[in-house]
Amino acid sequence: MEPPSASLDPLASAAGGDGSPILSINGISKHFGSLIANQDISLSLHTGEIVALLGENGAGKTTLMNILFGHYRADSGSIEAFGKPLDQHSPEEALERGIGMVHQHFTLADNLSVLDNIMLGTESLWKPFSRRHGARKRLKQIMDDAGLSVDIDSPIRNLSVGERQRVEILKALYRDVRILILDEPTAVLTPQEVDDLFILLRSMASRGLAIIIISHKLHEVLSISDRVVVLRGGRVVGNARTAEVDRNQLAEMIVGRAVERPSVVARPAGEQLLALKAITVRDRTTRRATLNRIDLQIRAHEIVGVAGVSGNGQAALASVLSGLCTPDEGEFILQGEVMKRPTPRMLTGKGLARIPEDRHSQGVISEMSLWENLLLDELGQQPVWRMGLVLDRNMARHQACQLIEEYDVRCHNEEQPVGLLSGGNMQKLILARNLARSPDVILANQPTRGLDEGAISTVHSLLIDARNRGAGILLITEDLDELLRLSDRVVVMHDGHMSESLPGAGLTARELGLRMSGAFDNSPT
Predict the structure, then answer these.
(1) Tens digit of pLDDT for each residue in 413-436?
(2) What is the pTM of this model?
(3) What is the CATH architecture of 262-351+439-525?
C-alpha cells in the first residue's frame, strides 16, 4: 500500500464537507464472556474535529477504538467512514480508508530499525526496490515538524519505552491518515514536546484531519479537544463541548464522584537509606556511558523525583536500583551496606520494593492468577512458604483476597488471570505486592502511566502513606504535574548526567522542561 498524499486539503471536499460526519459509530456492543466492554455506543466525528474519549481504566475506550481500527469485531452495531460501511473488520481496511491508530501498547517489530518499522506495509511487494532514501527524507521532515526526535536507524529493541511510543506516533503521521486515533500519545513527552505535538495536531486538524484522542491528562484534554465523550462501564455517560466543562467536572463525569489528588505535606527527611556514589554504567556494545558518575541519596520520609526526557539514563538508573544491572564504576549503598553485585532477590530481601516502568512485561506474568502474581516477591519467605520450600496455597489465596480488598483491585476473584485486568487494577496489584510488606525503599518507575483520575489518586495516596510511614521513595516519572505534586526533592537527568537536587516546592513545569533539555550544571547531588 502506498502512503497517501502529504496534503490534507482534499479532505475538505470529501465526505463530511457538507457538515455531515465523516465517521459514524452506531450502537456498538462488545462482550468478552460475561464482561460488558461496550454497550450500545454511538458517536460521530467531523472533518477537522478533535474529540477526546475519556473514562476510567476498563471503561471500554480502547476496546471501542480497537473495533474501529479492525482489531476486534463488534457483537452488534455498525461503523461508517466517509459514507461507506467498514465491513471487513481489519486494520488493512481501516488504513485503506485513512484511519490510523497509535496504540497505548506498542505494535513494533523489535528486530527491525525505526525506519523499517515506519515503512512497514507502506510499499507494494511487487516493487523491486524499496524507496528508503525518500522515506528517510520525509520522516526527518515529519520529526522536525512534530518535535519528536529518535534515531531512525536504531533497532527497536535498543529503544526505551518513551522512544518506542514516539515511533508509534511517527508511524501514524508518516501515513498521513485522515482519521487519527491517539491512545495516550503524550505519556512520555516533555511540556515543550507536548506543545509542539499539539501545534502539529491543530495544524493538521485545520487542514481536515479528524482526531480521536484517549488521554487521562485532563489539562491536555481541555487544551487540545473540541468535544469530550465519556465512557463508564462500557456505556456513554457524557458528551459535551470542551469549552463548556472544567477539569473537576470532567473528573467527576469519568469516575462518577468528586476526585481530589492528594499532596505531600512538608516534613524533615530522616536517615539515609540508599546512596549512589559516582555510579557509571556503560553500554556493553558502544561503551558509551548511559549513566555518568551519578550521585544520589534517598532518605527516610522523602520522595525524590527524577525528571527527564525518556532515554536520558532513567532506564539504566532503574536497572541499577532493581539489581538488573551491575555498575561499571561507583558504589551502591543500601541500608549502610555496600552492594557489590546486587541481585533483585538480594535487594528485595533488604527492604527495596520495585514498581517497574512497564507493568505488562516487567510487573506481572499475565497468564498467572492474581494470587500467584502476589507471591512473586515473596519466594521462599514466610508465612506462605513453610521452611522456604513448601507453598501453603490456602494461606496464599487467603492473603491474596485480603490484599485485593485492601487495595481495591477490581476483579472476578483471586483465580482470575492478571492479563484480564485493566491497566489501573494491574497497577494496584503490583502496588499491593510491593507495599504490603512495608518496604524501606521504593523505586516507583512511571507508577501512574496510562491510569485514570481515580486510579492516579489511589496510587498517589499509597505512595504518600509509605513516605509518611518512613519509606524513602525514588519517583521516576515523565508526568511533571505528578512530579511537582509529590516530590520533596527533584533531580533532572540529561544524556546520562544528573543535576544537583532542587527543593520540590516552588518548581514549575516550565523550569523543569528547560532543565530537561540539558540546561543544568552536573554538580553532585
Answers:
(1) 899 999 888 777 888 899 999 988
(2) 0.70
(3) 3-Layer(aba) Sandwich (3.40)
